[in-house]
Fold:
Amino acid sequence: MRVITNRRLLEFGASHKDSFEALQSWKKLMEFGCFKSFSDIKQVFGSADKVGDLYVFNICGNKYRLVAYLQFERQICYIKAVLTHKQYDKDGWKK
Structure:
């Protein structure tokens, strides 16, 4: 699956140093996977959730959240946001 864009991961990782390796590991798992459905995602990322049309991944043991839009048929993952748990709880990412 192609991940668009790594820049968001790098920017977040630069300001939250403990997340950098975990975000890059998540990216590698996404890029080397061929996910056909949410159940395929759950097999690799057990704590992933589906919220409307978006998918939420826990990073660093649920300290951070990565919100993405996945197009399974085109094998593309658009990163919408990487948030702290506090930012995620404000629900602004749903807009």
Strands lie at 2-4, 49-51, 54-59, 64-71, 76-84.
